[in-house]
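Posting this for the archive.
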Amino acid sequence: MSEETIVPRALPHDMQAEIGVLGSMILSSDAVFLCREKLKEESFYKLSHQHIYNAILNVAEDHGDVDIILLRDELKKKGFLDKVGGTAYLRELVDTVPTSANVEYYINIVREHSIKRHLTHACINIQKTAQQDGIEVEEILDRAETEVLGVRHLKESSRVRPMDTVLQNVLERLDTLHQNPGQLTGVSYGFSELNRLTNGMHPGEFVVIAARPSVGKTTFSLNLLQHVCHVERKPAVLYSLEMGAEQIVSNLLCIHNRLDTLDFRRGTLNDTQWADLEESIDDMAGLPLHIDDSPSLRIGDLRARARRMHQQHGIELVIVDYLQLLRPPKSRENRAVEVAEISAGLKALARELNVPVVAVAQLNRSVEKEERRPRMSDLRESGAIEQDADVIMLLHRPPQLDDSDGESEFEPDEDINGVDPEGIPATKAEMIVAKQRNGPTGICSLNFWSRYLRFEARADHY
């Protein structure tokens, strides 16, 4: 059949099912509550049905029960009565549906056709995007995926659950913990003291790790990934907006093998180090780690990609490096509003995928100027991060004092530094848990070997 002979088809819809829903709502307040939960105005194909649906919800909100007289007055007040067919059509709705017993059946039909219409519109948008000049193929694919996944979410049912169901789930989890006392309830950070304070990274949590530049926040996140993917063998994805994938893997090799980063870059490793490196290649190649080093990602694109990774690979941890480099859905004049949208998007992603989402973030310069421990208020550009995050951790490397006359908030602590097998001491570092929605706050002492890019808990050093 030629393109000229194709007859345009109406978008998917079922008028009888829509009439069944509206008639049931007029007959039963229970049907109103059920429809309110599962349907929206745009779920109805016919515009007059959209007006009637909204009017029924308004009447139910104001009066509890719905009848034709109240519905007529509401539509008349809004100026829609004649447009929907008058009182005669409202009576026809009731006469056509003698009982509301089948309302769930009608709802499912209306929802299915609504989803098909949304999918049709998504396909049209994808086609328009693909035909535009000047758009990279990768961006077209990302937009297409976002469109389709957006339709998929329309299929999701309500998350409302009765108390007894939730209570039973909680009791089962408590029983498991009772049988295994001390067991982590979340994904391990790989640092014993931090695990004791937080009990790990929990599903649905939005975790922020913040620090000033060059303190080691990216390096800490790589140490975290090395533990989760290599030791725990849990799949994870890293979205790196600042560092390329090759540099990330190079740093992971240094962390894994305790290699001097300078020797690694120069190629001056000794024979023993080369042998250890070659031996670790196969193990590192099998890590369940996925790296996306696309620069200038929009938060919407990142969420779409993360959904796909979760569906394809069962991702159990998402790390973003770093938050302030993400782009908002739309450019705003106020940078704080942009960061707030990004922060809210990451929090929503954690809830949606039910996995921990860890975002690296920048602190402002006041920490360096005032020579003090960082605070949550030092988070750069937006206080919304403080509100959205479930856990906020501030990485800090206190000044190392050479004498007791140095002016600083910190006292020298000779016992804090570990020593590696070559006798090289670590520098002191602290991970300040400044906020934990479901637990205590505190400070965890860490050792940091800059030459190996390794963080280790104080109790775990050599």
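Residues 1-7, 401-416 have pLDDT under 50 and may be disordered. The domain at 185-400+414-460 is CATH 3.40.50.300 (Rossmann fold).
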